[in-house]
Design brief:
With 389 residues, the protein is mainly β. Helices cover 10% and strands 42% of the residues. The chain has helices spanning 2-21, 32-37, 321-324, 326-333; strands spanning 27-30, 42-47, 51-54, 69-74, 77-81, 93-95, 98-103, 112-115, 117-118, 124-125, 133-140, 143-151, 158-169, 172-173, 179-182, 186-189, 192-202, 206-215, 224-231, 242-244, 249-250, 264-265, 272-275, 285-290, 297-303, 314-318, 338-346, 355-365, 382-387.
Length: 389
């Protein structure tokens, strides 16, 4: 008995030693503080399309400090007042896009200023002259640039895109001097189409702009990732943009509309690519996205270059809300309705070294015609903290 007991004890020690020595490849947990920043009962109540970048042009990981300003911009958003249970009070309105500026690097509601226009009745309205959904943004030489598209809500056909520019004056965006122009960043090749702007990597003279390649008429086509680049001083001139073909850079957008140009697949419509500072992936590029755009799976991939193929997928988080709110959604909107999670992305400027703050969006699909979105808790972004020690 002593012999077998000693063997058993030795085996347990080896097992514990191995478990202790093995470091986790990642740790991910909900970030309550950043989520709470957007859990509001007045003013901006809910919205998707959330992107963030430095008003000073610096969006590197951890670049925000207690005095800096970070721009957030959103697509479809609800404004008004909400009850304690999250339900909208009468008079809530939806706008197609809006901005916010956060002062500091902490999720302090008192330091967050939302920016939107008002109409003749004093109600919130779009900042721009079209019903834009906004892609990622960047600040170059005190000018905000972002790409906007108009999407038909019934057919999902895209119109555009447009390059939007907004000057920064006195450390604030001046939307009275906004300029928009149509740009050749959407290409169709038979059933295949590519659209650029879904993510921007901004560090150094070369700016990398990511796009997705999709196959129309195939609902579950594994949407592919493609990339363009441009010198910082020429960002406004899309004729100078170059598109990665899988082998070389080309001035012709058609050359990236192919399988050879794909860096990854099963992408979301919005995502992020970040050059990591610190942690196990120090100096490498990490792609954050939602698998297949709409799912509960938040994934990352790794690459050595911003234009090389990314690694195999690692799922780092499963969004709980579709299951958590399932019964409630069907009670409110009917059995045909479902809550979905989508378009995850990192926010490196407000993240610490070796980790990333990641957001994902919530929305309800299957709302019957004539019904209104009735509660903010089913529509404001959630945040998680992804640690990569």
């Amino acid at each position: 008995m002593r012999f077998f007991g000693a063997i058993l004890f030795f085996g347990i020690c080896l097992t514990l030693s191995a478990a202790t020595a093995a470091e986790p490849t990642f740790i991910c947990e909900p970030d309550k503080e950043w989520t709470t920043l957007f859990d509001r009962t007045e003013g901006w109540l809910a919205g998707d399309g959330i992107f963030s970048y430095g008003i000073d042009g610096n969006s590197r990981q951890g670049s925000a400090n207690e005095y800096s300003k970070t721009i957030f911009h959103f697509s479809d958003s609800f404004f008004g007042n909400a009850n304690a249970d999250g339900s909208f009070k009468a008079g809530c309105v939806m706008v197609n896009h809006c901005f916010a500026v956060l002062t500091g690097n902490k999720p302090d509601p008192s330091k967050m200023q939302f920016i939107y226009k008002t109409n003749a009745e004093g109600r919130p309205a779009n900042l721009f002259d079209k019903r834009f959904w906004l892609s990622d943004g960047i600040v170059i030489d005190s000018i905000i640039y972002t790409i906007g598209t108009v999407v038909d809500p019934k057919t999902w056909e895209m119109e555009g895109p447009w390059l939007i520019s907004v000057p920064i004056q006195n450390n604030q965006p001046d939307f009275s001097k906004t300029e928009t122009k149509p740009v050749n960043l959407f290409h169709k090749n038979g059933q295949y189409e590519v659209l650029f702007g879904i993510g921007i990597y901004n560090d150094g003279d070369d700016i990398y702009i990511y796009g997705f390649r999709n196959k129309k008429g195939v609902p579950f086509f594994p949407r592919q990732l493609v990339v363009a680049k441009v010198h910082r001083r020429s960002f406004n001139d899309t004729a100078t943009w170059q598109f990665w073909t899988g082998k070389h850079w080309s001035r012709n957008i058609a050359d990236c509309n192919s399988d050879d140009a794909a860096l990854a697949k099963r992408m979301s419509n919005e995502l992020s690519v970040t050059k990591m500072i610190g942690g196990r992936y120090d100096g490498k590029f990490i792609l954050i996205y939602t698998e297949d755009c709409i799912s509960t799976r938040l994934n990352f991939m790794i690459s050595d270059l911003p234009y090389s193929r990314f690694s195999e997928t690692t799922t780092f988080y499963h969004c709980p809300e579709p299951k958590q709110y399932e019964a409630e959604i069907k009670r409110i909107y009917g059995n045909q309705a479902n809550l979905v999670t989508y378009n995850a992305k990192a926010h490196p400027r407000i993240s610490k070294q070796g980790e990333l703050i990641v957001s994902y969006n919530l929305n309800v699909f299957g709302i019957k015609d004539g019904m209104f979105f009735v509660t903010k808790k089913h529509g404001f972004p959630r945040f998680v903290r992804l640690k990569l020690p």
